[in-house]
Amino acid sequence: MLGCRLRETYPVVPLADRHALSIGFTTVADGAFFGIYADRDAAPDAELLRDDIGDALDELAELAPATAEEEAVPVA
Question: What is the dihedral of CA 57, 58, 64, 70, to 10 degrees?
Answer without folding.
Answer: 110
